[in-house]
What does this fold into?
Amino acid sequence: MATCKCVIYYRVSTARQGSPGLGLEDQTKVVTDYLGDGAWRLVGEFTEIETVKSANSFVSRPELHRALEICKRKRATLIIANLGRLSRSVRFVNGLIEEGVDFKAADMPHADKFMIQAHAIMAEWERVQNSDRMKAALAAAKARGVVLGATGPANLRANIETRQKAAEAFAKSVAKVFAGFKAAGLTQRAMAEELNRLGITSTRGGQWNASQVGPVLKRLLRKPARR
It folds into this structure.
């Protein structure tokens, strides 16, 4: 069996290290499972400590640049645990493709770099959609007289109502996806993992965990109140 050279690149955030799928231990397991068939020879391994500024900045990833240099020099493939740990920015992924280095996402073993690019486009689209929904909800709240950032019982009530409406709108937007998960008999943890794999962001624009899936399921099961 021919052996291919590879360089592993991990990215972790000290603020979110404990979140499912985001920690170094989780990424290591995914990559180890992917490389377990013996077809790869490791020639480099790098871990990036994420900062707010470097989250989607190609120039602010020194470890990534070191990994790419070795890939070019050794003609190796860059291995990442999943696309979300690289970036959810299409511009960032395009920049990596332009570097001329082959790369693979361990959670999408059969995807080539162009399929990964398409996946990044969908992930970015979903993030923009979530952002637009939130902006629309805030604009509607302001139009109803809610003073954003202000305190007091009246404004607190209005803000709660705004959040509830935004949550309802989000639940409706992913209703078909969750219906498919339920039909397949997935657990809440498995649903969270699948949502992350598909690049669908949570209500706050981040990755999912099992505790975030529960409230959405409850909203979808809740019968509308009679008027």
